[in-house]
């Protein structure tokens, strides 16, 4: 059962029991506990819902645009700083984050082999190739050629020279600015897809359990204060 509901229910039972049984201490404990729990529950509720007549309620949906701006600023100013980008673009960073092997494995290198065959046919070796059956004679070499080419490309992409070349290109000021602009566009686009209701649900889901404890402790401390008040009146 929801912690807030349970706390309020227990406090209400103490109030009713103390009143019906004419037990002022139990009544005082229940009344103070109920007031503390209900007050904290209302405060939590006012974070997410607009309550008519209560100024400041519904702060999360009301400040929706400010939340979006804050998230965007957090992403761009904390994560995509010059220091973080430089760290990513270090030689080790590029090597560990950019692995072109899966991409190379998916590349169709058949056109490269066909271009090679065409080049040979149009060269001075074309006549000699025709004597041995033409391009059909080297067709069995297609698959070994493609396999060797992919292995060579993988080796090149993992070489220190290639990594340094990629790093130097990515570190160009115009490239960095373009990268930041594109990231900013992606972040802004994703945030524009959010609605006040969705933001409210996300935040509420993240902190629901912790906010529930506010109600519980409000009831506990209210009950303790009620007990002290009742004991002082005896």
Low-confidence stretches: none
Largest sheet features = none
Roughly what is the average pLDDT, rounded to an integer?
79
The fraction of residues assigned to DSSP E strands is: under 5%
Overall radius of gyration: 35 Å
Describe the global form. Answer: rod-shaped
Helix count, per DSSP?
13
Derived structural class: mainly alpha
Q: Share of helix among residues?
A: over 70%
Order of helices and strands: HHHHHHHHHHHHH
Distance from N terminus to C terminus (CA atoms, Å) equals: 36 Å
User: What's the number of extended β-strand segments?
Assistant: 0
Explained architecture:
The chain is mainly α and 234 residues long. Helix 1 runs parallel beside helix 13. The mean pLDDT is 79. The chain has 13 helices and no strands.
Give the topology, please.
Layout: H1 3-20, H2 24-48, H3 59-62, H4 64-79, H5 82-88, H6 91-97, H7 101-106, H8 110-122, H9 126-131, H10 142-157, H11 160-170, H12 173-192, H13 196-233
Helix pairs in contact: 1-2, 1-13, 2-13, 4-12
């Amino acid at each position: 059962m929801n912690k807030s509901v349970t706390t309020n229910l227990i406090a209400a039972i103490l109030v009713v029991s103390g009143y019906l049984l004419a037990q002022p201490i139990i009544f005082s404990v229940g009344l103070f506990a109920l007031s503390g729990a209900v007050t904290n529950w209302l405060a939590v509720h006012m974070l997410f819902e607009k309550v008519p007549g209560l100024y400041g309620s519904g702060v999360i949906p009301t400040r929706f645009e400010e939340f979006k701006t804050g998230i965007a600023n957090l992403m761009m100013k904390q994560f995509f700083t010059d220091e973080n980008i430089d760290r990513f673009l270090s030689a080790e960073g590029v090597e560990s984050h950019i692995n072109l092997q899966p991409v190379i494995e998916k590349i169709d290198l058949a056109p490269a082999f066909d271009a090679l065959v065409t080049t040979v046919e149009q060269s001075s070796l074309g006549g000699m190739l025709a004597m041995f059956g033409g391009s059909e004679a080297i067709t069995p070499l297609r698959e070994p050629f493609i396999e060797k080419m992919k292995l060579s490309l993988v080796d090149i992409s993992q070489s220190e020279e290639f990594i340094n070349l990629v790093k130097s290109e990515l570190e160009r000021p115009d490239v960095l600015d373009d990268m930041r602009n594109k990231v900013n566009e992606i972040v802004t686009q994703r945030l524009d897809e959010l609605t006040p209701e969705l933001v409210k649900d996300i935040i509420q889901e993240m902190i629901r359990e912790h906010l529930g404890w506010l109600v519980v402790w409000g009831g506990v401390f209210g009950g303790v204060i009620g007990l002290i008040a009742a004991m002082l009146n005896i």
